[in-house]
Task: structure prediction
Amino acid sequence: MTPPTVLVHRDQDLLAKAAAARLVTRIVDVQAARGSASVVLTGGGVGTAVLAELAATGARDAIDWRRLDVWWGDERFLPTGDPERNETGARAALLDHVDLDPARVHPMPASDGPDGDDVEAAAERYAAELRAAARPEDHGPVPSFDVLMLGVGPDAHVASLFPEMPAVRDERPVVAVHGAPKPPPTRISLTFPSLCAAREVWVLASGESKAKAVRLGLSKAGPVQVPCAGARGRQSTLFLLDRSAAAELPPGIGRIASP
Result:
């Protein structure tokens, strides 16, 4: 597994634009090579900003949206359409504005879904959906996602994998999260085996509140204490940052700074 590549942009706006352009290129290349592509979305300010930039750029028309599978890395276990759900933000920013195949959009279950308020059953439902999509060449219970995007919290959590909580040690593909330190407390999340099944993992961070988490995520810290340090792709890992989030990067980290 190769070390992460760190790309630093001037501010969050430029970071979002650059990440959106990179995402278009990656999806188009994969579709040209294999016919279809898959992405895993993240919520949060930067993740949603990337989707909004993608919606706003004419380059989005280069993507064959009908041949794209869309998944999520984690979700707040709230009713469908709740503004706090990652799915709600993604639909408003991008998904409702492009010609996706509804059968290839895979939101995590909501608390008013078929399992009601049983978040354990809802997590298993999503795991079953992932298993059904995995192919023999994936060699596991989840697809080999082409791009998996992650935000990072000030505590270095990614998806809904919080430091020292049971989910960071869980080997199941998808888990229910209870008592998350960040509201809402009940969530569904992919685990490390699923995150690390992705060909490319992109960690997005902006703002000085993320600087310490980014530094730790690029250190040799263990993923139980620093989940960001355990998010690595099979082929490559990118840390896409603005200058504030990169402010505490240790010496020796290779950086490509945009103007």
Remarks:
- The CA atoms of residues 44 and 151 lie 7 Å apart.
- The mean pLDDT is 95.
